[in-house]
């Protein structure tokens, strides 16, 4: 069976809705050896004065390299200290499904999403809630399955994979998030919790 490579696109300027990760194992029939990667797209940063500016330094009011680096470092620390993400890591580790996080910088979220899905050879792409107007763009550019997070905490399938072995798997066209009861995980005792590693039992945080 061909392994699943699921890519979830998230606007890094917003709080992570971790319920999508509780849905994915059953909604996409994830098995041992499969891989899910969260792409946190950093397309703008907040200045000390509270203004939002683009990460595109070519623009007149674009952020400079130092500001972007500081924001990336802050986001990395935020994710490392997120207890809910620690719970997700433990859940996926118990299923032997690899869970990764990448912070991707780019002024165009859809361009970053396409590049990430292509680089990771995604078999299924889950778009951020705000990417409603970009659905047709991805349908034309990609052959993988595509879903999008919509209102009322629902994930709706836009299209299944085209001419790939993944079509043989069972997918749910629409699913309401359900809270999962997961035992607390004390990641302060796991010295390798945030180590970049090739093994499936590691929580990986990469800066792209």
From TrEMBL:
GO terms for molecular function: 3-dehydroquinate synthase activity; oxidoreductase activity. GO terms for biological process: aromatic amino acid family biosynthetic process. InterPro entries: DHQS. Coiled coil: none annotated. This is Putative serine-threonine protein plant-type.
């Amino acid at each position: 069976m061909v392994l699943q490579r699921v890519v979830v696109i998230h606007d890094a300027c917003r709080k992570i809705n971790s319920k999508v990760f509780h849905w994915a194992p059953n909604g996409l029939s994830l098995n041992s050896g499969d891989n899910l990667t969260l792409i946190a797209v950093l397309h703008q940063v907040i200045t000390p004065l509270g203004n939002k500016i683009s990460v595109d330094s070519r623009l007149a009011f674009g952020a400079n390299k130092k500001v972007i680096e500081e924001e990336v470092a802050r986001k990395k620390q935020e994710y490392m200290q997120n207890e809910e993400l620690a719970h997700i890591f433990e859940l996926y580790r118990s299923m032997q499904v690899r869970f990764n996080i990448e912070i991707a910088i780019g002024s165009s979220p859809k361009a970053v999403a396409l590049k990430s899905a292509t680089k990771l050879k995604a078999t299924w792409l889950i778009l951020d809630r705000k990417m409603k107007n970009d659905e047709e763009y991805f349908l034309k550019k990609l052959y993988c399955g595509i879903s999008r997070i919509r209102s009322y905490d629902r994930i709706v399938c836009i299209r299944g994979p085209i001419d790939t072995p993944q079509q043989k798997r069972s997918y749910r066209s629409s699913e309401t998030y359900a809270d999962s009861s997961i035992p607390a995980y004390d990641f302060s005792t796991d010295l390798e919790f945030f180590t970049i590693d090739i093994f499936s039992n590691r929580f990986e945080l990469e800066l792209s």
